[in-house]
Structure formats: C-alpha cells, structure tokens
Amino acid sequence: MTPTPQKNQEGYAMRPSGRNVDELRPISIETGVTKHAEGSCLIKVGDTHVLCTASLEERVPPWLRNTGMGWVTAEYGMLPRSTSSRMRREATAGKQGGRTVEIQRLIGRSLRAGVDRQALGERQITVDCDVIQADGGTRCASITGGWVALRLAVQKLMKAGDIVSDPLIDPVAAVSCGIYAGQPVLDLDYPEDSEAGVDGNFVMTGTGRLIEVQMSAEGSTFSRAQMDDLMGLAEKGVAELVAAQKAAVA
After folding, report:
1. What phi and psi values does residue 40 have, to the nearest 5 degrees?
2. Which tens digits make up the pLDDT trace of 114-153?
3. Are 175 and 137 in contact (CB under 8 A)?
4. Is the C-alpha dihedral spanning 44, 46, 49, 54 positive or negative?
C-alpha cells in the first residue's frame, strides 16, 4: 500500500524531492564535452544525465537530394547501467525496442520544428542522445540538451561561412508534468513518475508555441481544468529551460 504523502504548510502534498509543485529539478548544461562532435553537451536534470552530440554530414537522405533542403534527425539510447539494474544493450538483441524508436522519432521531429531546413542547406545533422543516468524525464532532457548540441553545430557552420543565415528559428525544449498525489506538478522524477495518476510531456519553442503534447492517464482520469494547470506549469518550466539553453550557448 502506497503511504499517504505528507503535506506542507500550504496544504499541498509533499513531493519526494521536497520541491515546490512548480519547481524544476536543478539544471546543469556543460558544453564541449566531446572532442570530435561538431556540437556536444552533458545535460543534467536532477539525477537524469544525458550526453548529447550533434554530427554534421554534407549529404542528405535520398528523398531530399537536389531539393536544397537539409535534415535534422536523432538517435536515442540508454546505457546498460543507467538504471537501478543493468539492462541488456539493444545491439546485442539485434534491434531497437519500440520505446527507443518512439523516443528518437520524438526528439527528431521536435528539433526539426525549430529549424529552417532551406537555410540549413543540403546537409544533415544527427543528434545522438545517450542516457548515462536515468531518474525520469530522459526524453525531455534529450530534447532540451539536443537543441544545445544542435545550436553549437550550427554556430560552427556559420563561423566557417558555410551558411549565410541562421537556420535555427527558435529554441526547442521539453518538460514533463503530471498529477501526483492529486495535484499538478512540474518535472516529474522517477519516484513521482512511477506513482503519478496522470503523466505528460510538453515540447515547446522558446516563444511558447507547442510542438507536441503527450498526455495519458496512468490510473486516474483528468479534467480540462487540470490539463490547463499542467499547461501553465509546462510553460513556466520550458521558459526556465530555454533560459538555461541560451546561457549555455552564449
């Protein structure tokens, strides 16, 4: 039986981390962490740590040849001991799992939403997101850190004069929100995620435009009012993440 959470002075259930309902986990973004990638960063969102690298290729997939348009794609993976018990490498199984494929497609289309692919020119940037340590929100951390790596790779292209105008229209970041102990909370860590009645991921641009919202009931339904509350928390969280992104690449 799950113990009843303690309440704080405001009457809200205490979060396992002790954070306020609208408080992100501590954010750290360290850039230039690998030697060879055109752009790289190590993003830490609490105890979730993801290595993000952006690799540039002067080619595009066959369906984009001779169109003058570029492409941004992503790959995602979790290291065997990124969780409490060792998981088998997907390479040894001979194929990626459904969760991995779904997440890397989400990362790719999220990042592309902030890119002017015509301005990028006929080249491809692949963003690799490798989870070193997982404590909830790995896909959101990957999107947020992936944009930083992408930004750094584009800066190198511009510095070299390979592109004339900046192809990155707007920063892209993501955060999770959910209903924990009956209340909307921002940025779920694993203890909250595993107990949440409602779980959602919000991908947004720096100007507050929505890219994708993934919401699901995990044991209890939710109202339109609760959805609006979660949206408000997500907007606050993404604004703070974008500020961290901009500081990292300044």
Report:
1. -155, 155
2. 999 999 999 999 999 999 999 999 999 999 999 999 999 9
3. yes
4. negative
Q: At which residue do the structure tokens 């979660």 appear?
A: 230
Two structure tokens written together for 124: 């491809």
In 68-208, which ranges are E strands?
A: 71-78, 124-133, 172-180, 183-186, 198-205
Locus of tokens 């992503």: 74
Cβ neighbours for 90, distance < 8 A, ≥ 6 positions apart: 77, 96, 97, 100
Structural domains in the chain plus CATH codes: 27-249 (3.30.230.70)
d(CA 165, CA 212): 26
**In contact, 53 and 127? CB cutoff 8 Å:** yes
Give the orientation angle of helix 138-159 with respect to helix 224-249, to 10 degrees.
40
Q: Which residues are annotated as a binding site?
A: 99, 137-139
Average pLDDT, the chain: 94
Q: How many CB atoms lie within 10 A of CB 144?
A: 29
Nearest-angstrom CA–CA distance, 44 and 48: 6
Contact predicate 196/179, CB 8 Å: yes
pLDDT per position as a tens digit, 90-117: 888 888 999 999 999 999 999 999 999 9
- Alpha carbon distance 136, 177 (integer Å): 11
What percentage of the chain carries pLDDT values higher than 70? 95
Helix axes 138-159, 98-112, angle to 10 degrees: 40
Over residues 192-236, the pLDDT tens digits come to 999 999 999 999 999 999 999 999 998 889 999 999 999 999 999
Numbered residues of the known binding site for phosphate: 99, 137-139
